[in-house]
Amino acid sequence: MLATPLFNEKELLFQIGAGEEPAFCVLYKHYYGSVSKIVVGYVKSPELAEDISQEIFLKIWENRGRLQEIRSFRDYLFIVTYNYTMNVLKAAARKEAGLAEIIRHYQAGRICAEEEILHHEYQRFLDKTLASLPSRSREVFNLCRKQAKSYNEVALQLGISRNAVKNHMVHSMKMLKRSVETELGISLGMLLGFILLN
């Protein structure tokens, strides 16, 4: 797992977002070791893991403008690390015959364990975002999405109109979409799909 957050991390993220390289160096030195350990667990090659880890931090630097809006950099970094490493492995499987040995040693058990961690991180992010919704909107979302109730069923249960249910869902989905795309860099559909399929 990743290192614990720095005590002044929010301030560092603000400085990095403003383009201050010294602040980025502090963040890089703090998290690089744990990112590298996660990556090497997948690729089984310290040299390749070093390259991937550096690319991950380069990607974060290139997208530094969004860092000031991120509520949990640790969650964001874990997801970026996982997604980028998976993309490298998939590309290697398709195009790089020379990496066949790495792919053969790609342990299914480890994949399942890491995907379970990612599922937990995604679920925690979703729960945290939902907690910021108004209580009625959160209640409507849980009934519609988690309990798979229809708008009519929810309206009847809560004693409100079907149109009110729809409005709550539209508001909730817009807020979730904005938070997921801004903080995780993925689509809302990808987040919900991953949670539902795992």
Please provide a written account of the structure.
By secondary structure, the chain is mostly helical. It folds into 2 domains: 106 residues, RNA polymerase sigma factor, region 2, helix turn helix motif (Rna Polymerase Sigma Factor, Chain: A, Orthogonal Bundle), CATH 1.10.1740; 91 residues, Orthogonal Bundle (Arc Repressor Mutant, subunit A). It is 77% helix and 0% strand. Helix 1 crosses helix 2 and helix 2 crosses helix 4. The radius of gyration is 20 Å and the shape is elongated. The model has no long low-confidence stretch (mean pLDDT 81).
- Element pattern in H and E: HHHHHHHHHH
The main sheet comes to: none
Indicate the low-confidence ranges by residue numbers.
Answer: none
Helix content: over 70%
Number of strands: 0
Helix count, DSSP H or I runs of 4 or more residues: 10
Mean pLDDT, all residues: 81
At the fourth level of CATH, the homologous superfamily of the largest domain is: RNA polymerase sigma factor, region 2, helix turn helix motif
Shape: elongated
Strand content: under 5%
Indicate the structural class. mainly alpha
CATH topology (fold) name of the largest domain = Rna Polymerase Sigma Factor, Chain: A
Q: Which architecture of the largest domain does the CATH hierarchy give at level 2?
A: Orthogonal Bundle
Radius of gyration: 20 Å
* CATH class designation of the largest domain: Mainly Alpha
The end-to-end distance, rounded to whole angstroms, is: 20 Å
